[in-house]
Specification:
The protein is of the alpha/beta class. Helix content is 38%, strand content 15%. The relative contact order is 0.14. Residues 31-267 form the NADP-dependent oxidoreductase domain.
Length: 280
């Protein structure tokens, strides 16, 4: 169990990944982004998650360099994730896209690189490229995002390196029990994107009742629920107060009964695309 903001999960290749981080989906390049990333680092966050398609890798890189220059953190203490976009999938194009991301980030290596979506006919070649980057030491860990069980089985068939992480939509309305169990059995770490269902869950009466019981916000209850399921979580915020609030989840523990009540909210409902039927 993750017990504090610096606690890590050990991936199957021995790399240690923080159990909690900052996501920057839909945060535009600019001072707000730089300030948010630096605020997160200042308040103890060590994992930052971006992607090529977010079009903010340069700002994330600027924030990281400034934080290092200001002695807020050392590079080796940070865990930086980016993702390969769909239009760049394939072996050679994936390698080129990785270099473009690294140029924008201004980093010498990446801690985690993910295939963003399982593009049919291409993701296995993309995975070969990620294996190459991993063997070369350009990336410490490699994984996938939005992969269902059959995608994982397909990519592992003939792969030299098993995915270390699968980042998926995961929240109380989409608990993905079978996928979570499969990943546990395979030693693949599940990571939640959109853990708060883009804010849709904040008015849920069951979650509000549980939050009142523990003296916590609905967001804090959900993020704690993630951790107690062994799922890494990366909530997004640009507001310093919310960044602090989101991470204030290590001073309480949800009872088994309350965990089950939250699990029971599942409707298999997504706010993002279906990985088996998406068009980008």
């Amino acid at each position: 169990m993750i017990k504090n903001l610096q606690d890590t999960v050990t991936l199957h290749n021995g790399v240690k990944m923080p159990g909690f981080g900052l996501g920057v989906f839909k945060v535009e390049e600019g001072q707000e982004l730089v300030a948010a990333v630096k605020a997160a680092i200042r308040h103890g966050y060590r994992s930052i998650d971006t992607a090529a398609v977010y079009q903010n890798e340069a700002g994330v890189g600027t924030a990281i360099r400034e934080a290092i220059e200001e002695s807020l953190v050392k590079r080796e203490e940070l865990f930086v994730t980016s993702k390969l976009w769909n239009a760049d999938q394939g072996y050679d194009s994936a390698l080129a896209a990785f270099e473009a991301s690294m140029d924008k980030l201004g980093l010498e290596y990446l801690d985690l690189y993910l295939i963003h979506w399982p593009v049919k006919g291409k993701y296995k070649e993309s995975w070969r490229a990620l294996e190459t980057l991993c063997r070369e030491g350009r990336v410490k860990a490699i994984g996938v995002s939005n992969f269902q069980i059959h995608h994982l089985q397909d990519v592992m068939e003939g792969a030299e390196i098993k995915p270390m992480v699968n980042q998926v939509e995961f929240h109380p309305r989409l608990t993905q029990k079978e996928l979570l169990q499969f990943c546990r059995e395979q030693g693949i770490q599940l990571e939640a994107w959109s853990p708060l269902m883009q804010g849709e869950l904040l008015n849920d009466p069951v979650l509000q009742e549980i939050g009142a019981k523990y003296g916590k916000t609905v967001a804090q209850v959900i993020l704690r629920w993630d951790l107690q399921h062994g799922v890494i979580t990366i909530p997004k915020s640009t507001k310093e107060a919310r960044i602090i609030e989101n991470a204030s989840i290590y001073d309480f523990s949800l009872s088994e009964e309350d965990m089950n009540r939250i699990d029971a909210l599942n409707e298999n409902r997504r706010v993002g695309p279906d990985p088996d039927n998406f068009n980008f």
